[in-house]
């Protein structure tokens, strides 16, 4: 099979480059010696081209032995233009189902793919677009999310950033209240202004008094004044824990004209209305702080966002530690979705961190999650991996060619003209290769032959 006319690459089961052809080098501008790590300066040049090379890493489904396609942006070798290409990943596995190597094909965007789109890659692409959007709007990706509840949250932040009235941010522990406060501060165009967070639950009353109103000895006479410079953002964490005498002083300070030059953001992990009824929170202060209210939902009420949030925390762990984990297996996501998440986003971040460190492969399964998330105390037993079959390159390519032709013939229901068109080769060439590879006849009548994802392929793996 002549593959040199289109960009082709081979990856090992862990995503390491084994081979790239001249067309791949021409498209990317990256020498084969750099991609394969064989040159003396390969490490430095690999880092230089890391963004492009990362785009050729296999999606999580490929590691599991399933052929899929993805979309990738390839930076041209001149460094200026970027081109969209469709990548097809075709894993080749032994009779026991272990992936031996992965054939990668680079196709133009207007050509139909024989392999289905990768859900895992689509999730990462969605996450990439979300990060880019939130970086532009808020200068940070800390508010990553999707779904109706998250869109409503972003709308509230946008509206609150345009107003000068105090904002009350209410939500359960770990739901991201401080991230919302910082995003509101940045969106209001105050990224260079003073941003002060005062934890009302952690500080003694006398320290809170000094933090809010300055040194008692140096205070001017008259009504209490907040000591912060004009344009500053003051975040009152756990405002329900503020002592009542300081609540009265704070309310008085908020009535002064110079208080309008400050942005006041109050945070509550409890129910402020209940606190007013129980007289733990002064009603006048509550009404002063709640001109605008942003309420955050617990994670168990927005589980549709869990896959993208888990992948976000996983990518963050990858960047921080240098360990590479591609994503979560579907059964791991199912396990995460069945948990109640009393600690919300903070707990999800800790769980992902735990799984990231515990995983011994590039994909995270339910066995890598903490026992309380799994619902049991036992860990899964993983037998040692067996030695993988090693084949010469020509033999590997012939096996892949056989599978590609079988898949095309099956998809075309034995119509060789249609199959040849799907493979982008002539009917004469397809007929010759069918004869040379011993594939004559309708593949549906041959039992045990078929596309990589078909039932026949699974039967072959079980023999």
Question: How does this model look, in words?
Answer:
The chain is an alpha/beta fold and about 475 residues long. The chain is built from 20 helices and twelve strands. The strands form three sheets. A five-stranded antiparallel beta sheet has the order 2-1-5-4-3. A hairpin with a 6-residue loop joins strand 3 and strand 4 (about 80-95). The longest helix is centred in the first third of the chain and has 20 residues, at about 120-140. The radius of gyration is 29 Å and the shape is elongated. The two termini are about 30 Å apart. Residues about 375-390 and about 440-463 have low confidence and may be disordered.
Relevant terms:
20 helices, alpha/beta, 12 strands, five-stranded parallel sheet, 463 residues, five-stranded antiparallel sheet
Strand content: 5-15%
Rg from C-alpha positions? Answer: 29 Å
Give a short account of the largest sheet. 5 strands, antiparallel
Structural class: alpha/beta
Shape: elongated
**Total of helices:** 20
Report the average pLDDT across residues. 81
Output the strand order for the largest sheet.
Answer: 2-1-5-4-3
Number of strands: 12
Estimate the helix proportion, in percent. 40-55%
Unreliable sequence segments: 376-388, 441-463
The N- to C-terminal Cα distance equals 28 Å
Please provide a brief summary of the model.
The chain has 463 residues and is α/β, with parallel strands linked by helices.
């Amino acid at each position: 099979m002549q593959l040199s006319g289109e960009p082709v690459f081979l990856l090992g089961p862990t995503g390491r480059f084994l081979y790239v052809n001249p067309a791949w080098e021409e498209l990317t501008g990256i020498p084969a010696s750099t991609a394969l790590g064989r040159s003396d300066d390969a490490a430095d040049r690999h880092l230089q081209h890391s963004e492009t090379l990362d785009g050729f890493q296999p999606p999580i489904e490929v590691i599991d032995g399933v052929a899929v396609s993805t979309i990738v942006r390839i930076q041209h070798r001149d460094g200026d233009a970027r081109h969209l290409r469709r990548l097809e990943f075709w894993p080749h596995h032994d009779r026991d189902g272990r992936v031996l190597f992965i054939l990668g094909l680079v196709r133009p965007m207007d050509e139909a793919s024989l392999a289905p789109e990768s859900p895992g890659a689509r999730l990462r692409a969605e996450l990439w677009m979300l990060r880019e959007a939130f970086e532009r709007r808020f200068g940070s990706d800390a508010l990553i999310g999707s779904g109706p509840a998250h869109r409503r949250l972003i709308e509230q932040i946008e509206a609150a950033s345009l107003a000068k009235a105090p904002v009350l941010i209410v939500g359960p522990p770990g739901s991201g209240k401080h991230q919302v406060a910082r995003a509101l501060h940045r969106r209001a165009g105050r990224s260079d202004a003073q941003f002060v967070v005062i934890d009302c639950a952690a500080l003694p009353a006398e320290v809170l008094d000094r933090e809010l109103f300055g040194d008692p000895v140096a205070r001017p006479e008259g009504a209490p004044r907040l000591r912060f410079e004009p344009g500053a953002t003051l975040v009152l964490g756990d405002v329900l824990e503020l002592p009542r005498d300081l609540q009265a002083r704070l309310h008085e300070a908020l009535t002064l004209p110079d208080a309008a030059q400050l942005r006041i953001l109050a945070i509550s992990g409890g129910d402020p209305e209940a606190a007013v009824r129980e007289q733990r929170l002064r009603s006048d202060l509550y009404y002063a702080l709640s001109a605008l209210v942003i309420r955050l939902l617990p994670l168990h009420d927005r589980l549709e966002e869990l896959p993208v949030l888990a992948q976000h925390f996983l990518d963050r762990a990858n960047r921080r530690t240098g360990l590479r984990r591609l994503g979560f297996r579907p059964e791991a996501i199912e396990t995460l979705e069945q948990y109640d998440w009393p600690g919300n986003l903070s707990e999800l971040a800790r769980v992902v961190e735990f799984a990231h460190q515990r995983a011994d492969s590039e994909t995270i399964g339910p066995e890598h999650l903490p026992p309380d998330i799994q619902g049991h105390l036992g860990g899964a037993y993983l037998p040692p991996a067996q030695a993988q079959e090693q084949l010469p390159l020509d033999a590997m390519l012939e096996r892949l060619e056989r599978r590609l032709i079988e898949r095309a013939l099956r998809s075309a229901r034995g119509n060789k003209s249609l199959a040849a068109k799907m493979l982008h080769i002539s009917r004469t060439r397809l007929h010759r290769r069918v004869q040379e590879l011993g594939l004559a006849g309708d593949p549906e009548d041959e039992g045990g032959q078929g596309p990589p994802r078909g039932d026949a392929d699974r039967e072959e793996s079980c023999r």
